[in-house]
Amino acid sequence: MIQVASSLKQTRTKTIAVPTDIVEYARYRGIQLSPDQIKVLRSVLSNRPTIVESAHSVGKSLLAALLACWFYETHPNSIGLITAPVNRQISEIIFKEMRRIMPNCKDFAPKANSLYRNAEWWVHGYATNSGDAFQGKHSAGGILIIFDECASVDQIFWDRAHSMFESGKKNHFFLGIGNPYSKSSPMYLEALTGKYNVVNMSALDHPNIVEKREVIAGAITRQTVLERLQSDCRLAEPHELDKAFQFEGQNYVSENPLFDVQILGKYPSQSDFSLYSEEDLANLLIPIPDDPDYMVSIGCDVARYGSCSTVFVVRRGPNIVEVQSFKGLSIVQTAEKLKEFCNKYATKTLSPYRIPCHIDGSGLGCGVIDLKGTGASVYNFVEVINNKKADEDMETYVQGKRTEIWVRARDLARKKALSIALLPKKQQEMLLNELRMPEFTVTNNSLIVLESKEKIIKRLGRSPDFADSFGLACQLDKPTWDTFRNEIPS
């Protein structure tokens, strides 16, 4: 127990025993927790960073507020940081819940999102509009970091948190909690690193649903779940059991991505803004027979920023057969690497000078193009300008060449005409993760526009260099590539 003083009257002070166990603390504060909420809190308190993939209306914001209050009351001379995509989420939800949990606490700032005892003992809320405000915070007593709606928290904040939080260290706690809308979010990519304990909070497991009555007021209701089952799901066929979920003894299949997110607390098979579906990505892992006489194409995305790599992807027929990545290559070295690949994959019927090398020419790539050679030794360096118009056959569907490149590669995956099964597993995983990264929007003319590389770097903290090169390698000369054969002698 922690002893804290609470001023009841000006003339006397009463000492209250605050439980150090968080479940007991919740009871002490009059809060009923669901089994999933207890599971999450136990995970956080084990000093392992925790990410929660949550359905709607299952008490995720209350969970964050309770954790912050418990930490403040039981960890003197420690600091807590709470962030969310917008200030309203912090002030009108998290801190509003915190004030409700501790109604008599005098340490709340009148207007700011802050609990403050002294310079070494506080909890502050920050909106994610500046990564600089969320760094360099350390405390000998302990630290709590909470990301609410963490699917929309930019990568820079995750990176800042890593510099402040030490997994496994006593009194160091991290909770990221949000609705799993998109596999292109930092929340999803961080979970893949293996650094976090990932917990699912499904509405179907909530006490209100399991016990068929209102156990926890204000949470998800059974009526809501039944209505969503009727409108968004159907009974599963026998061959669909692998993708079905169970509810009250019946197997169901979701037909609405929002049901996956809002009720099951799971990522949809394809988000509303992701170019690749999970089925598309699974198709890329299906082996396709290779043939050394298939046509070869090479994609090269030349590094433009300090964090970027120059990546080479070699495609032979329907297979991606090699991927290499380098940091710090000069333009001359990049051109030489491309020539090495052309010579390596040349055959008796395919001259190294005929192999198309599709190079992103929107940055430093234009300098590589100039080094294609002279005289009889001119390599087939093809400049691809991302901001050009899409080809005629695609211009009524996509806006811009870069979007066209990604869509063409996606369409090959959708047709099961492209495979990365020959790559090492680590490269497969890296490529699949990068293909999930970009989001797209739709213009007023109903054209698809892929998110720019600059925006991806800002949102996720890294560039999809492998995926961009993969797309470039998939650019085809349609009459020749229909059979993948090199039928014209060199």
Structure description:
The chain is an alpha/beta fold. It folds into three domains: 2-201, Rossmann fold (3-Layer(aba) Sandwich), CATH 3.40.50.300; 219-269, no CATH class; 280-481, Nucleotidyltransferase, domain 5, CATH 3.30.420. The protein contains 17 helices and 19 strands. It has helices spanning 22-28, 35-45, 60-74, 87-101, 155-164, 186-191, 207-210, 222-232, 257-264, 278-284, 331-345, 365-369, 401-414, 425-436, 453-460, 465-473, 478-481; strands at 2-9, 12-18, 50-54, 79-84, 114-118, 121-127, 143-148, 172-178, 197-201, 233-235, 245-247, 250-254, 296-301, 310-316, 319-326, 357-360, 381-384, 440-442, 448-450. A seven-stranded mixed beta sheet has the order 5-6-4-7-8-3-9. Helix 10 crosses helix 13 and helix 14 (425-436) crosses helix 16 (465-473). The protein is globular, with a radius of gyration of 27 Å. The N and C termini lie far apart (83 Å).
**CATH architect. name of the largest domain:** 2-Layer Sandwich
Structural class of the secondary structure composition? alpha/beta
Largest sheet: 7 strands, mixed
Task: Characterize the overall form.
Answer: globular
C-alpha Rg (nearest Å):
27 Å
Number of helices: 17
CATH C-level category of the largest domain: Alpha Beta
CATH topology of the largest domain: Nucleotidyltransferase, domain 5
Assembly type of the shown chains? single chain
Strand order of the largest sheet: 5-6-4-7-8-3-9
Q: Which ranges are low-confidence, i.e. pLDDT below 50, for 5 or more consecutive residues?
A: 1-13, 478-483, 486-490
Terminus-to-terminus distance: 83 Å
Number of strands: 19
Provide mean pLDDT, rounded. 87
Helix share, percent:
25-40%
**How many domains, as an integer?**
3
Strand content: 15-25%
